[in-house]
Amino acid sequence: MIAIGLEGSANKIGVGIISHPSPNKPPVVLANLRHTFISPPGEGFLPKDTAIHHRAWVVRLIKQSVRQAGVKIKDIDVICYTKGPGMGPPLQSVALAARTLSILWNKPLVGVNHCVGHIEMGRAITHATNPVVLYVSGGNTQVIAYSQNRYRIFGETMDIAIGNCIDRFARTLMIPNDPFPGYNVEQYAKRGSILVDLPYTVKGMDVSFSGILAAADLLAGQIGEDIPEKKRLRSEEGELVTKEDLCFSLQETIFAMLVEITERAMAHVGTAQVLVVGGVGSNERLQEMMALMARDRGGSGFATDERFCIDNGIMIAHAGLLEYQTGVTTKLEDSTCTQRFRTDEVFVGWRDD
Amino acid sequence: MASESADPLPHAPESQYTHTLPLPFTNSDLAVLTQGAEALVYRTTFLTPHTPCVLKYRPPKPYRHPILDKRLTKARLLAEARVLVKCRREGVKVPAVLGGDWEMGWLVLEWIEGRTVRKVLDEWVHRLGLRARDGRDVVDLADEVVQRDEGEMRRLLGLMGRVGRAVGRLHEVGVCHGDLTTSNLMVRPPGDLQEPGPERTEDDLEGEIVLIDFGLATQTIHEEDRAVDLYVLERAFAATHPAAEHLFQEVLRVYGESFKGAKVVLKRLADVRLRGRKRTMIG
After folding, report:
1. Does residue A211 register a pLDDT over 60?
2. What ipTM does this complex have?
């Protein structure tokens, strides 16, 4: 069976085509295209502008991916789209595109939970059977474990998402948003070495980033070139603290928090597998820390590369096709989208463990 | 050490617990009881070879920056020891602190006899499951159990009440646990009945509640922190079994009466429940 997936919950529009040859064979990626709306340094992406971007690109990407996949329209079984969670206007424009395709091609629709899309794609790529999942992106921070046909949320952020924290800190430091802010912060962090004190906020299984961002923003205000050198922030050894050091300190602190709550979930569930998904999951330092933790527990860490962990259409196609194969479709009149759609609301009918 | 053997295994499976214990325990041969997320817990003895005690060692975390790691280990170990001493002084049932070294990352604590509430609940759920063959709704089943086994249910609710009171007492003295799961609540068998007998299972719902694992505890009287404690406990109950949520109401009821200010915490708990992100908003 073949599915096309449309994703546009944030600033990426993605179109993917996947084939599930048979239940025992691994899925085949036929096409996986993406275009990103990039805002200027110091600015985030606004819902309205992002929706305009998606509307401008969606037809082009669909045509291109069908051509690249080498499939005929009649071979496509189902159209999958992101139902939520995400930003309203971008979600709406992509849902509209999906509905149009459904009428035009006369094919059924499946609305997919974005988070479940990430989890299923991660599992398919890494072959991790039943891992604790850390889902980290610009809009989500969750520690998830599967139990009785649901992906249950063990811990999550109580305020902003980790990617949002990083992105906004990048804006404070005027670090460019191209290709994406987290990537650039990661490159800065690689050159940093001084660890400055930042709050460390783990509450039970949950984490909080807003206070850390505020503290980091304050420190960033003390390193500017316009401040006399005597008054600038220095380390205990008296060295001047740089942007690179701040990026380094931010990453070390917030990633340690994530690894800590993930480890707690693993201890609780009793598994030694961990899978990192979502855009922030492409960060090599986070992957390294996860792998170190997992090895310490006698297990292993899994991660995917940027093709699959940054928002994409293929994961929506994959998760949608899994659901479609259990007989579920979304009727045209129900093909809405929603900004709030929790991971644990989805009935995972395609797993029976 | 074992004598020289013929050939070392070409791929000796790496032990799950590769940590070396800190001094003065480095050369002792202790078995790991549990590997929590934070600490390795061993059973050893204190003063006499017949007095069991718990050694709690926080090994350095390889993933954490060494400075951050030292800062967190020291702060958490000291906080844990201080909180335990304070609870002891105020009469809250917790393990006594027998010794510790925050630079090396270890604490030695009193041994608590008994089983965790999680285990007690799991077994109760298991018994429930045995009667659930005809696949009826668990909540109905719970009701049925109430009717059929009034005695057992009453004792179970009694246990829940003691959990509520123990948590209330802890909060009253100005401590929040920080990781209040059912695995961190022990049921200590009453008095001198500690020698295991065959009919012990009948009495396992009796006994006092002892709170353990204060690794994330804080000294605070904020209703927010107290409410988060209850929320974590509630989720632990919910994760055990849908029917166990019903029992949690009894925990909350007794908690609400356990100290002045408990009612406010229960109100706050309602807010905390709503706080999960991306929940469907109504209204």
Report:
1. yes
2. 0.87
